Amino acid sequence: MADPILEVISLTKCFGAIAASDGLTFSVKRGTIHGLIGPNGAGKSTAIAQLSGELQSDAGRVRFDGQDVTRWSVDKRARSGLQRSYQITSLLPEFTAEDNVAMAIQSQQGHSFRFWENARRDHSLRTPSRKILERVGLSDFADSPVMDLAHGQQRQLELAMVLATAPSMLLLDEPMAGMGQSESLRMMELLRPLKGDVTMLLVEHDMDVVFALADMITVLVKGQVLVTGTPDEIKGHPEVRRAYLGD
Ligand code: ADP
Ligand code: MG
């Protein structure tokens, strides 16, 4: 494959007798959205956690951006640009959307939590914070406290928080989970244009979303890769239809 940003090589993780991931091998091309799909329990979240560094792998390797990151911590991977998406629980509800983004930028610059209050007074963070809010469609809500934002807007802000860390690759485990149809359509429209800057590995159970967004798709079944292909190849794959789409 031309210029893979991520190479997953025989990655394995066992929980007792269960191999949640069992020799996963696939590559993600730079500047693409790569879908990761499969039935419940197929090992998608386990794979994401192994790639982010939250879970140590039992075997196999992960290469990111030309380096072997297999034994790297979550923080070291994040600093090198491989980043998992934030959770709403990491937002500070009484602060404005802009304050939250400013704090995320500042933490990226190596400041710890207790300095975050200062981010509000650091005017050099204003322009970059506003730019990021614009990218996630929240320009009009820069001065709104997070607790006043709708659920979907808070999810957009989560995306802003992770963009503030300037990732080159994002690991997204069901970013539309719990969203209504209009919110998830909005999130799709936000993710699509990001891919030039930010490669994405997207776990998503809604097949319409995956087929609409992904350039390539890897199908997992029982911890193993069934197939990696284009959306059209995946749609036409008889075993995928049988194992996953319910034919
Ligand atoms: P998916 O995200 O595709 O639904 P998971 O990665 O969450 O699948 O789970 C894959 C398999 O690993 C399942 O059988 C699940 O029960 C098991 N599993 C996941 N996490 C743990 C854990 N922390 N301890 C034990 N078993 C786990
Ligand atoms: Mg999961």
Automatic annotation (TrEMBL):
Entry keyword annotation includes Transport: yes
Superkingdom classification of source: Bacteria
ABC transporter domain residues: 6-247
Nucleotide-binding as UniProt keyword: yes
Pfam families: ABC_tran, BCA_ABC_TP_C
GO MF terms held by the record: ATP binding; ATP hydrolysis activity
The entry's keywords: ATP-binding, Nucleotide-binding, Transport
GO CC, one annotated term: plasma membrane
Protein name: Branched-chain amino acid ABC transporter substrate-binding protein
